Amino acid sequence: MIAQATVACAIILDLGEKMRLPLPLRFLALAALLGSLTLAHAAPTKPQVTTPAQFVELNTQSWQKCEGLNGCEFVLLRGDPTTSSSQWMFRLKAGTPFPRHWHSTPENMVGIRGQLVFRFETGDTRTLRAGDFLTYPSGMIHGGVCQPGADCLYYAFNDEPYDIYLEPEQK
């Protein structure tokens, strides 16, 4: 569609020049063409809704302990982390460190509360705060700490099955 519109614009401008039409008339013809192309592009058919909206009230959920990490809890919001994409809420107690680890798929996060400091194998350090977005590639070793002062709460989502591999402690 864009390629066709580009060709049509070039033809109209070229034809207007050959016919010695004043520039305002050329642009008027061009505007008419573009307007008709916009109107001709119909909206897609609305899909049939087959499932209801999902609402998770965090205060009523049973938070599960993160395996091997005291001070960490999570709620699986949606998906099956063993076979497909998944969405989670994690919370860490203020001052809780989390060990160096990596995932075989990219991980994406949005900070909700507190300050979660990440230290990456590249030497970079980033602090995830309320409203911040963080993503890192598969295989990126990372660890860090929920800063003292406030518990950390963050939303995480994975487009593929979730896994975690702990790294040996650095000496």
Describe this structure in words.
With 171 residues, the protein is α+β, with helices and mostly antiparallel strands. 20% of the residues lie in helices and 33% in strands. It has 2 helices and 11 strands, in the order ααβββββββββββ. It has helices at 2-18, 23-40; strands at 64-65, 72-79, 86-92, 97-102, 107-113, 116-120, 125-128, 133-136, 142-146, 152-158, 165-166. The protein has a 6-stranded antiparallel sheet with strand order 1-2-3-10-5-8, with no helix packed on it. A hairpin with a 6-residue loop joins β1 (64-65) and β2 (72-79). α1 (2-18) packs antiparallel against α2. The chain is elongated, with a radius of gyration of 26 Å. The termini are far apart. The relative contact order is 0.16. The model has no long low-confidence stretch (mean pLDDT 85).
Topology of helices and strands:
Blueprint: H1 2-18, H2 23-40, E1 64-65, E2 72-79, E3 86-92, E4 97-102, E5 107-113, E6 116-120, E7 125-128, E8 133-136, E9 142-146, E10 152-158, E11 165-166
Antiparallel strand pairs: 1-2, 2-3, 3-10, 4-9, 4-11, 5-8, 5-10, 6-7, 6-9
Helix pairs in contact: 1-2
